Amino acid sequence: MEEQTIGYLGPKGTFTKMAVDALFDGGNFISYESIPACLDAVEEGEITTGVVPLENAIEGSVHLTIDYLVHYVNQSIIAEMTVPIKQHLLVHSQYNGEKIERIYSHSQAIAQCHQYLHKNFPGIKIEYTTSTAKAAEIAASSGPKVAAIGNHLAAERNQLKILEDNIHDYDNNHTRFAVVQKNPKTLKVKDHPHKQKTTVMITLPQDYVGALHQVLAAFAWRKMNLSKIESRPLKTGLGNYYFIIDVEQAYDQIMFPGVKAELEALGCQMKLLGTYPSYQISLHTPVKKA
Ligand SMILES: O=C(O)C(=O)C[C@]1(C(=O)O)C=C[C@@H](O)C=C1
């Protein structure tokens, strides 16, 4: 088997890289500075595989990923992994009780710690970065009055201290990551899948009474369990949406074509975004507080 080349939302020290290290059994890993840059690299054949965040238990979908997969590239989700997320407040190694004036992090991480920030740093200046690891790099080069929100790996890589650990607002914080490819190839992974899933995108012809009900009924009477449904703007005008539906089973030749035909008879379109194994990763995250 040729060596797998895996692109991920970097730099090293992101949660995405932690997820990649936990799942893949070797390979050539390439860091990208943003989700679109990683997905573009897959599209252009620079790498075979991309790994990007898809959904968080506290903040919900990573819309940039979903919209990019739907509107800008033609790729399939070929695996997903769910990873525990522990956010820490990271400060400079020289920190000695100074008043923190600015906090950097990725928008998903800031949102996961919203209450914590509101209570402990009311009115603080928040700066958004392309990743939590990028925020850690900035904190390391900025001095003791600047903090970052990120993980223990980013702290270690940038010689930051963990001033406060587990600052996310709710326990059981997890993020789902999508593994995507343009031309599906086998992956070399360390783990066994927990279950199989399928993701489809559905568009309705126009807004009419009971349209969504009819779509859901096509799955329900076939006893196909859905684990997620989300509407996103089609970007063609207010009130126009598409739906992303996750089904808790692998694609099969009977049920899914049946659903598709039923939906098409109603004037809807169904597009397969991927049918894939779902991995649940448990990361060992040792925390050394300052
Ligand atoms: O910034 C990172 O470390 C990422 O890997 C991105 C990301 C995300 O976009 O959801 C991944 C996991 C966490 O939910 C926070 C940030």
TrEMBL record:
Residue ranges occupied by any Prephenate dehydratase domain in the UniProt entry: 5-182
GO molecular function: prephenate dehydratase activity
Pathway where this protein functions: Amino-acid biosynthesis; L-phenylalanine biosynthesis; phenylpyruvate from prephenate: step 1/1
Enzyme Commission number, as recorded: 4.2.1.51
Enzyme class: lyase
Catalytic reaction annotation: prephenate + H(+) = 3-phenylpyruvate + CO2 + H2O
InterPro entries, per the entry: ACT-like_dom_sf, ACT_dom, Chor_mutase/pphenate_deHydtase, Preph_deHydtase, Preph_deHydtase_CS
Keywords: Amino-acid biosynthesis, Aromatic amino acid biosynthesis, Lyase, Phenylalanine biosynthesis
Keyword DNA-binding: no
Superkingdom as given in the UniProt entry: Bacteria
SUPFAM superfamilies in the cross-refs: ACT-like, Periplasmic binding protein-like II
CDD domains reported in the protein's UniProt record: ACT_CM-PDT, PBP2_Sa-PDT_like
Ranges for domain ACT: 200-277
PANTHER family reported in the protein's UniProt record: PREPHENATE DEHYDRATASE P PROTEIN, PREPHENATE DEHYDRATASE-RELATED
The protein, known as: Prephenate dehydratase
The gene coding this protein: pheA
